[in-house]
Amino acid sequence: MTVQEHGIAAGHVLLLRYLNRAAILCGQDYVTGPDIDTAMRLGCGLTTGPLTLVDEIGLDRVLELMAEAAVPPAPLLTTRAWPERLHRDPRHRTGPAAPEPVAAGAPSSVGIVGSGTMAAGIAQALVVHGLRTTLVARHEERAVAARHRVSAALDRAVTRGRVTPAAAAAAAGRLRTGVLLDDLADCDLVVEAVVEEEDAKRAVFAALDRVCRPGAVLATTTSSLSVADCAAATGRPADVVGMHFFNPASAMRLVEVGHTPHTAARTTAVARALARHLGKVPVSCPDRSGFIVNYLLFPYLNDAVGMVERGRAGVAELDREMEEAHGFPMGPFALLDTIGLDVSVAILRRLHQQFGDPATRPRAMLTRLVAEGRLGRKTGAGFHVQRPSREAAR
Questions:
Q1: 115 and 137 in contact (C-beta within 8 Å)?
Q2: Domain spanning 4-92+292-379: CATH 1.10.1040.50
Q3: Among 287, 276, 354, which residue's Cα sits nearest to residue 31?
Q4: Ranges of Low complexity compositional bias (predicted)?
Q5: Integer Cα distance of 57 and 386 in angstroms
Q6: pTM
Q7: Which residues 6+ apart lie within 8 Å of 352 measured at CB?
């Protein structure tokens, strides 16, 4: 299928809309331009951040292409306030600033509530970097499974020569698993990594408020829900912060650190120090749905689905164009299949609920596939795989 939108390559249109949304975000003074670029590079595996890419293409050329593609340019791109100072100087911002950093070291003992892929990945990163870690699951079977997942990952690291057998054994020895939240009482920082549902997260934070020692930092891994809502379930909102790790948490270098108006500077500083201790790059964001990466990524993915719906592009062709012509590590549909179509719809709905942006209203094709049970790789059927897996068919 010819990949066209507005008479030019659909991939070019998709890229231009993504760049424009990044410029809109930069113009909102939510975070700095360098933070946007850092977040999209490290969170999505891109070689170049969107604002730097505008510079590389050339602002005048970008505006010409946007006119051809019927993309109304962000005000920031047309005010000529764009150049060096705005997007390169992290000090240039007029909106609410993040809490000022204070001296803080990484915690020496960390707790995790959860037993899924994200929880196990965070646990692996913690123990490899020398931190005593306690993982608490809902059931003993889940706790055992999480431990086995971490052990298997450490074994693979040994096989690949990334760690020595002795180092892997020492890391495994730092992990304690169980089912009692009381085991987290002495932790310096506790990370909540349960299902992305508001009621479930609030219940965890209410329980942690009762169990954890005064001054312990309580962090949520949410990527689309409110950090403030989690904090409201406690009597210590100053101690609550967002730490959005990216999957796989053991390898991805970005951590979005979300702070509410009530988050103490010390709390943010401890979360950032932990991220740096794990070899990651923390980017601080005021609390709102999507932070940086999901705010930019999911409208881009939704837009790609819309192009296919309108018959302007084919799934395989658009994936190939975004990978080969624009340097994305994975095309939009391959990425949707990897994330999970149901997860993607849920995130888009939350973004739409908060911002009301038409770009975040899930496309009908996407919701239809979810209704059919075609959720991506986890079911063996999504945009690229046409047949449900045996597991999905049960």
A1: yes
A2: yes
A3: 287
A4: 95-105
A5: 37
A6: 0.91
A7: 360, 361, 362
